[in-house]
Automatic annotation (TrEMBL), chain A:
Residues 9-259 form the ABC transporter domain. This is Oligopeptide ABC transporter ATP-binding protein. The lineage of its organism: Bacteria, Bacillati, Bacillota, Bacilli, Lactobacillales. Keywords: ATP-binding, Cell membrane, Membrane, Nucleotide-binding, Transport. It comes from Lactobacillus rodentium. It is found in: Cell membrane.
TrEMBL record, chain B:
It is a multi-pass membrane protein. It is found in: Cell membrane. It comes from Lactobacillus rodentium. This is Oligopeptide ABC transporter permease protein. The chain crosses the membrane at residues 9-27, 99-122, 134-162, 182-205, 244-266, 286-312.
Amino acid sequence: MDKQTDVLLDIEHLHTAYRLQGKFYDAADDINLRLKRDEILAIVGESGSGKSTIASSIIGLYDQKNTRVTGDILYNELNLVGLNDKLFNQIRGKRIGMIFQDPLASLNPLMRVGDQVAETLYYHTDMDEKQRHDRVIELFNQVGMPRPEEMYSMYPHELSGGLRQRVVIAIAIACKPEIIIADEPTTALDVTIQAQILDLLKEIQKETHSGIILITHDLGVVAETADQVAVMYAGQIVEKADVKTIFSNPLHPYTRSLLHSMPQTDSNDEELHVIQGTVPSLKNMPRSGDRFAARIPWIPASAHEDNPRIHEVEPNHFVRCTCWQGFHFEDEK
Amino acid sequence: MWKTVLRRILIMIPQLIILSILVFFLAKMMPGDPFTGMINPNSDPKTIAHLKQEYGLNDPVWVQYGRWVGNLFHGDLGQSYIQKVPVASLIWDRAVNTFWLSLVTVIITYAIAIPLGITAGRHQDQWQDQSIQIFNYITLATPAFVFYILGLYIFGFVLGWFPVSGSVSDTASEFFGILGSRLYHIILPAILCALITTTATVQYLRTGIVDNKVEDYVRTARSKGVPDKVVFNKHILRNSMLPIAAFLGTTITGLLSGSMIIETVFSYPGMGKLFLDSIGQRDYTTLTALIMIFGILTLLGNLISDIVMSIVDPRIRVQ
């Protein structure tokens, strides 16, 4: 296969800014990402790091009046930034499917779940009612729903969280999209259900050869599913590499702190490592210097770049700033 | 579905019994007895005692209550002391008048409120919304009787466009016909009443739309590539109509209870005016009958609301 066509989505210099009290603030700052076919790209970060902002920018679902999006999101040489709604509606649902966090809230309480899946097909295919119904049953089977015929006429409140999320996934994959964006797809679910849903996502990806952007704050989810990982902090990507590198050789202090904060089963330490301070709010985000510097105060200012850039430290391993070179947890106290 | 309805009807039975007991004993506690004003006060006390015995007023209270309830079931609401006619026939004529006035009022109310609510919700915080909010503040703040009297004065007396009292013209001519004359009498009070009762419906609809617009399921619908117009009409609007559906039952039964203020201002012979007049004239039989009827209508209204809600909202249905 030609190497070029493997790239499904090419995000270049994406800035997404929200208006707060008349002023625009970048919630996603100079994002460069590339999603390839057959690949799961995880975007990891704390709440407020801008990961969901990237998702809504890609699919064009944001408050048009109070959001400013610049840069390029290239899909098959079509720039999704500033694309008009009519064209975008032919892409949403058909070429890009979206899975949301809260499966109860993401379904219309007054519509039978089968009809909610069929609605996607109505707008993107030539199927008649019977064909749509059959396709929904097929999809319900694919996402592992028991008794699909019966499930078709159920209402969201009658289903369990796991089943609802399967419906949401069925909606997202109904038209066999090339790109699936999953925004915290397992956060609202039980741990046992989480694993099932993640397996399902991986399975679907293998079957459809799509590319998945997985947005999560859960490093466990990342380790289990992702191929490529982008770590975000305060609106910026701070580290980007394949999943093995991120877990075996993390470089940026933030990535290392995150991994260090994960409970380890093989250690006897009772206390968890805590990253000092909090993520700055959108309005108070530092606009120059290293944004993570305030949370690793023992690192001298001279270790940071004045204007931290992304460096390719080894092939396909990108790290922002140079402060990682002198970063050791032992120095903290 | 039918189970839900059956369950609700069963719940109504004890409610009705409690209501009837309350109404009966309230009537008993009122001063005077059923003969007050009906017979010559100078009659022989013996005759009165005999009459009391004959009409069962010396029976135990629960026997009297049983008899009253039994009569209710036969549609016998008693005799009006003042009008000297059976209460049932008195109420029937008024109920018909009130029904027509209220029906037209409700139709006009929805015809005004629903488009306003949708416009306000769709253009939240824009000039359309702000103008409708101002309209809402005015209709909410204006005292009904002032508004009605002003309307009556301007359109009835000064401009003379509409009749100022009654429900139908005595000389319903060939030109109008009886139905036309009825409608002609109804139209001004109905418009005035509708204008001032739109507030709640407009506000519920607006808030519903504003709230639902930012719901996750709306985002899901848009992520499916559903055009904005369809998202609004099919997803947002249907969910926003729920609170209005919840009021539908009480609105329908409200058609029969009437509005005391509008009927009094326009001297319109309906249930509301009858109620006020009965209080003024201490017409107890009519009053108790009316209270009983209003109570039953309220219960029925709740029942209809529940049924409507269970049709439009699957979450309400009882398994």
